[in-house]
Amino acid sequence: MPRLILPLPLLIPLPALAVGSEIPDTSGALVQTILGLGLIIGILVLGLYLLRRAGLARPQAGRLLQVRGSVAVGPRERVVLVEVGERVLVLGVAPGRVNALDSLDVNELPSADDNQRPGSEDFQRWLKRTLERRQS
User: Fold this and answer.
1) How confident is the model over 15-24, as pLDDT tens digits?
2) I need a labelling partner for 80 at 20 to 30 A (CA). Which of 39, 70, 122, 136 fits?
3) What is the 3 state secondary structure string of the chain?
4) Which residues of 74-96 are buried (b: 16+ CB within 10 A; e: fewer)?
5) According to the model, what pLDDT value does residue 110 have?
6) Phi, psi of 28, rounded to the nearest 5 degrees
């Protein structure tokens, strides 16, 4: 006669599955947890929205300064054109240092119609010509 072998987990008595006992109803706790999580996420979204609205009252640096172009002159050095109002600053940027090289009027810069991209060879030639013209 063959012997019946039961897996070990079936031999361990479980109080919740005992004869005459009922399975506890956890659907109410699950609904309460989901609603609580939704409330917390809603409060976070509302807080972030209010923080963003409050931040719009301050002037942002992106509106005051605009990088017009840059070119690498060494492995870690760059020359950058920064527009501030009606002036354009020519800055030398190196690790830990920023030096003002020159200051130009916005009218002296080429317009966007010249199809020059920041960092292109045309920008390098234009910057060299402008600096040479200013020195002479």
Assistant:
1) 555 555 566 6
2) 136
3) CCCCCCCHHHHCCCHHHCCCCCCCCCHHHHHHHHHHHHHHHHHHHHHHHHHHHHHCCCCCHHHHEEEEEEEECCCCCEEEEEEECCEEEEEEEECCEEEEEEEEEHHHCCCHHHCCCCCCHHHHHHHHHHHHHHHC
4) eeeeebbbbbeeeebbbbebeee
5) 66
6) -65, -40
